[in-house]
Amino acid sequence: LTYRVRAIGRLKIRPRLPEHAANPSAPAPSSTREVFLDPRRGKEAAEIYDYRDLGAGDEIAGPAVIEAPTTTVALPFGTTAKVDRLGNLAIRFADADSKEKN
Fold it and tell me: Is the dihedral of CA 69, 20, 100, 76 positive or negative?
């Protein structure tokens, strides 16, 4: 289960969020398997990544699956996920770049 809480207020301290360490080497998939991510493409081979092996700045291109202890992230063809300094996955669609420029 996931809970989201939003609060507004003033703190006497400034909290420090732990930063996600950079990975000295390129991310390597732990395996490859057939997955169904897009009905137009059908079943296709996708690289499987363990989130715990990813570091800040790592970028994964779909089709791929990122498995974490609490969730699974599916990346269809044409998407990329980049790990930010706090460990979040920022997912972008390939055509989003061209739409932003217009």
Answer: negative
